[in-house]
Amino acid sequence: MSGIEGKVVMITGAGSGIGEATALLLAERGAKIVLGARRPERLEALAARIEEAGGEAVWARTDVTRREDVSGLVELARERYGKLDVLVSNAGVGLLSRLDDLRVEDWEEMIDVNLKGVLYGIAEALPVFREQGFGHFVNTVSTAGLRIVPLQAVYAGTKNAVRTISEGLRQEAGDSLRVTVVSPGAVRTDFAERMDPAVKPRIDKMMETGLTPDAVARAIAFAIEQPDGVDVGDIVVRPTAQG
After folding, report:
1. For residue 91, what pLDDT is reported?
2. CA-to-CA distance for 80 and 236, rounded, in angstroms?
3. What residue ranges carry the coiled-coil annotation (predicted)?
4. Which own/partner contact pairs does 121-128 have at CB distance under 8 Å and 24+ positions apart?
């Protein structure tokens, strides 16, 4: 039996990209998957794919900027499977622009999704993990927080805030809970879909040499499959072509 088989794993941002790839890989390895994202049609299709392949999955439309949605997804996991082993906080948006452009609504959305969404996950899952005596937080961050460049100031700021909170959580967690931060570099997803049209071509070009979402999923699986008492704290995974 692998360190993944039988675990109940909740994934936000599961409708596409890294979240979708992670759900498929973990289900293949025997996990029971609880899917959350804003587009229910994608969740329904993904759950069907998992079940057709012999896996188990449930889903609920989840907007991580609404604490009640995150709470409902945690409760769905407990009601259906009786526990929650892992929370993968993967939902995120990257609305890149120059600070001079004053795209304040974009800044607020990144703070709400990338930062507050993770905090809501912690608020809902941490009491469950404490009650159970086990649990694992996996937070998707970004290499944007490791190398600060123009256009990414607010995005990188939200990701670095999650990195800082995750380290604080790890130190407070004690010997029964685990905390992992996964920092992907460029990944071929729909990340640039909603960006400023002036920025999007540059990001699309960078994505041409990006990782597949499955590469990040394998990094997440590596952290989850470790035996109890082993905490993989920080994983950086980037394409070899990325500077």
Report:
1. 97
2. 33
3. none
4. 121/12, 121/64, 121/70, 121/87, 121/89, 122/165, 122/169, 123/67, 123/70, 124/67, 124/70, 124/71, 124/74, 125/10, 125/74, 125/84, 125/87, 128/74, 128/78, 128/84
For residue 54, give the 3-state DSSP assignment. Answer: coil
Catalytic pick among 155, 186, 187, 213: 155
Contact call for residues 28 and 52 (beta carbons, < 8 A): no
Q: Give every CB contact of residue 194 below 8 A, 6+ residues apart in sequence.
A: 93, 95
From the list 155, 145, 144, 147, the residue with the least C-alpha distance to 97 is: 155
* Active site annotation includes 81: no
Output phi, psi for 10, to 5 deg. -95, 130
CA 141 – CA 121 distance, rounded (Å): 14
Calculate mean pLDDT across residues 177-186: 95
Report the pLDDT value the prediction gives residue 1, as an integer from 0 to 100: 47
pLDDT band at 196 (very low <50, low <70, confident <90, very high): low
Q: What is the reported pLDDT for 3?
A: 92
Exposed / middle / buried, residue 28 (Cβ in 10 Å: 0-12, 13-18, 19+): middle
Percent of the chain whose pLDDT exceeds 90: 84
- Measure the N-to-C terminal CA separation of the chain; round to a whole number of Å: 39
